[in-house]
Design goal:
single chain, 303 residues, alpha+beta, Rossmann fold, 9 helices, 16 strands, globular
Length: 303
């Protein structure tokens, strides 16, 4: 197969691992910077231009989107163009967009009865006390809707601190979520890597002392973890609700069962491959081999 990996940087661990795994399995691979693509949108012959090349229908059998959160709008437009050209996308444009909107994804998970932390959202509430009370009071977590990798996430340990942070964010006209703090999680979460409706690998991430965010980018430590059947089922259901074939589902262990914090459409591979010793990149390529067919877009533009 001819496979395109949409990534800003071919030297990134996840990109290079996917490229190497595809080549090892006999495929032809190109890494394309999606921001350097431009699209010829026509009803009879849509195409993608990249530097001095033009890619027409059937040029690529499959694409692997590695779209950064800051360029979601343009990145998913490029993915849509490839879908119009008949290429199979391991994660479809609609599903990527859906998962990137934190509020929308929380609402979709809630509608499908997937466990989530108690969450409140408001633009400019007159009753900040009521907003805080809705999530069980302090301590609580305040998240910017646009934040990634733990950036824009604040733990307010007292009601006064929560009021100050909420008012500060609202003064900047930033959209925020207010969530209950799951104390029993102890500063750890579980990253489940879901591929094709199955959890193929899982790791527990532990935040460093004095920090509540367990992201590896922020100094968190990863170890292999054994999932319960409920945790496995929750991760699979969350991926299905988002419509993602490949994703990272972040869970918190709470007294009322596993709670989904986030569903990531472009999960990093380094931490989970190193923690588990599994060839996650190879499993993703194997999934594409089994499922890539021309014009196979499930969502058909549905939001």
């Amino acid at each position: 197969m001819n496979i395109a990996i949409l990534s800003r940087n071919p030297r990134l661990y996840s990109t290079s691992r996917l490229e190497a795994a595809a080549i090892q399995r006999g495929h032809t691979v190109r890494v394309l910077d999606h921001l350097r693509c431009f699209m010829d949108i026509s009803s009879d012959n849509p195409s993608i231009h990249y530097r001095n090349e033009e890619f027409l229908k059937t040029h690529f059998d499959a694409i692997i989107p590695r779209i950064g959160a800051s360029v979601t709008f343009y990145g998913t437009a490029v993915v849509r163009q490839f879908e119009m050209m008949g290429a199979y996308s391991v994660n479809e444009s609609v599903a990527i967009t859906r998962s990137r909107d934190k509020l929308r994804s929380i609402q979709l998970l809630s509608r499908k009865n997937v466990g989530i932390p108690i969450t409140a959202f408001a633009h400019s509430p007159d009753d900040v006390d009521g907003l805080i009370r809705e999530v069980g009071g302090a301590p609580l977590v305040i998240k910017l809707l646009e934040g990634t990798q733990g950036i824009g996430v604040v733990l307010a340990e007292t009601k006064k601190a929560a009021e100050s942070v909420i008012q500060a964010f609202m003064g900047l006209e930033s959209n925020i979520l207010v969530q209950e703090f799951i104390k029993e999680a102890g500063g750890s979460d579980i990253r489940c890597l879901v591929v094709g409706g199955k959890v193929i690998a899982a790791m527990q991430r532990q935040a460093p002392e004095g920090e509540f965010r367990s992201n590896l980018h922020r100094g968190g430590v990863a170890n292999v973890v054994k999932l319960t059947s409920q945790e496995r089922a929750t991760a699979v259901k969350a991926a299905k609700v988002m419509g993602l074939n490949v994703c990272g589902v972040d869970l918190l262990r709470s007294e009322r069962g596993p709670l989904v914090m986030e569903v990531n459409s472009s999960p990093g591979l380094r931490g989970i491959e190193e923690a588990t010793g599994k060839d996650v990149a190879g499993m993703i390529i194997e999934f594409i081999e089994k499922n890539a067919k021309p014009n196979r877009t499930r969502t058909k533009g549905r939001g």
